[in-house]
């Protein structure tokens, strides 16, 4: 739906066509998400001097953006394959063979600059902005939003909408750049944003925006909530290990 609206391509007419590319898209999201979360944790450890100091809210958001930008090396080729698979109506392997044979393996990285911006803003939303907003909402003790679930949900919705609105023009450019694999109409990110704007105005840069806002907001909530749960589990585990170690030390004394 989003890709078709952004490209100006006709919507699929059958159920299988609506789901073309869904398997590789879902499968590729796993390593991309793992890469983002691992990179985020690695950078947090460096910036916080191994966890010896508390990160500021801006540092948390900035680290999330950096982690997402780095993951574009994985995400960019994946999304290009999904877009081209829908256009060529081939399987994943067939699409990959066609692109590498006709255009060379480097074409898989077409639109990589736009992918860096898109993934940076997206990951900054769920790794940085969503947990920061959730903490702020909890600290304000707003009636009805003081629990973990509701504060996380509210923070995720705001973060998801913010990330979508900021990054969607670049996402639209990325989709068109990767669909136009030969660069006949769209050559680069800045050129593509300008060309799309001149053709149909600002609204054309936000085609498919509703679909993406829903998608990103849901993803931000699920991923930020899972990360928050994992961090709480890790903290509890470390606390128990310290308690056990303390007991052992007391017995030795």
Q: Can you characterise this structure?
A:
The protein is mainly alpha-helical and 253 residues long. Helices cover 77% and strands 0% of the residues. The chain is built from 9 helices and no strands. The chain has helices at residues 2-7, 15-18, 22-47, 57-88, 92-102, 112-140, 148-179, 189-200, 209-252. Helix 4 packs across helix 5 (92-102). The longest helix is centred in the C-terminal third of the chain and has 44 residues, at 209-252. It is elongated, with a radius of gyration of 21 Å. It starts with a helix and ends with a helix. The mean pLDDT is 85.
Question: What topology does this entry show?
Answer:
Elements: H1 2-7, H2 15-18, H3 22-47, H4 57-88, H5 92-102, H6 112-140, H7 148-179, H8 189-200, H9 209-252
Helix pairs in contact: 3-4, 4-5, 4-6, 6-7, 6-9, 7-8, 7-9
What labels describe this entry?
253 residues, mainly alpha, 0% strand, elongated
Quick recap:
The protein is built from 9 helices and no strands.
* Helical content class: over 70%
Q: Flag low-confidence runs.
A: none
Structure summary, number of beta strands: 0
**C-alpha end-to-end distance:** 68 Å
Order of helices and strands: HHHHHHHHH
Basic shape: elongated
Average the pLDDT over all residues and give the rounded result.
85
Q: Tell me about the largest β-sheet.
A: none
Helical segment tally? 9
């Amino acid at each position: 739906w989003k890709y078709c609206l952004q490209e100006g391509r006709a919507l699929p007419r059958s159920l299988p066509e609506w789901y073309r590319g869904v398997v590789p898209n879902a499968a590729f999201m796993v390593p991309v998400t793992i890469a983002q979360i691992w990179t985020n944790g690695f950078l947090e450890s460096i910036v916080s001097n191994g966890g010896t100091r508390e990160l500021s809210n801006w540092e948390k958001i900035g680290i999330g953006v950096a982690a997402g930008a780095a993951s574009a090396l994985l995400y960019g080729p994946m999304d290009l394959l999904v877009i081209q698979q829908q256009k060529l109506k081939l399987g994943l392997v067939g699409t990959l063979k066609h692109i590498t044979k006709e255009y060379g393996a480097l074409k898989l990285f077409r639109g990589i600059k736009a992918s860096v911006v898109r993934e940076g803003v997206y990951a900054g939303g769920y790794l940085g902005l969503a947990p920061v907003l959730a903490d702020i909402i909890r600290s304000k003790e707003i009636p009805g939003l003081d629990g973990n679930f509701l504060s996380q949900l509210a923070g995720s919705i705001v973060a998801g909408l913010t990330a979508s609105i900021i990054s969607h023009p670049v996402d639209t450019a990325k989709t068109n750049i990767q669909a136009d694999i030969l660069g006949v109409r769209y050559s680069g990110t800045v050129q593509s944003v300008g060309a799309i704007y001149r053709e149909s105005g600002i609204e054309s840069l936000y085609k498919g925006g509703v679909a993406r806002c829903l998608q990103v907001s849901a993803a931000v909530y699920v991923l930020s909530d899972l990360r928050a749960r994992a961090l709480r589990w890790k903290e509890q585990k470390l606390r128990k290990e310290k308690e056990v170690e303390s007991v052992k030390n007391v017995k030795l004394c």
